[in-house]
Amino acid sequence: MAKNIKKVTFDKPCIVSVCSSKNKGESKVPVDRGELIENLGLKGDAHANADSTRQVSLLAIESIEKFNAGGFSFGPGDFAENFTTGGIDLVSLPIGTRLKIGSNAVVEITQIGKKCHSDCAIFRQIGKCVMPREGVFARVITGGSVKKGDLLEII
User: Fold this and answer.
1) Is the pTM of this model over 0.85?
2) Pair 61, 85: CB distance under 8 Å
């Protein structure tokens, strides 16, 4: 689970990693690209759910770096986020903010932070997690392909 990540700065907000998993309660694995499905989530991901306001999750690489400053070595996907972002202060965005990802996908922020559950992989390993404070959740407004390096734009 431990990964070495090098601190990077970003000229523009972007997707650092797209991550997916087949099962809930486990870390996600970085993938080359993902397909966002309107009102569902990331195709093939365990958290995709039309009845949920938490169809996808986002976590800033800066949040991971800050967490790792406590002596840890976690990387994209380890916190079960679908999208690791860079260059955007996700937790400062208000609920209802819409983000365009890449050429046409759009998500709307529905929740910031969450109650960490005891079966979370990170929580089981070290007893704490960054998602309760800095994880951002969204629903998919417009589907589309998303890949590492895609730009993020507040709309």
Assistant:
1) yes
2) yes
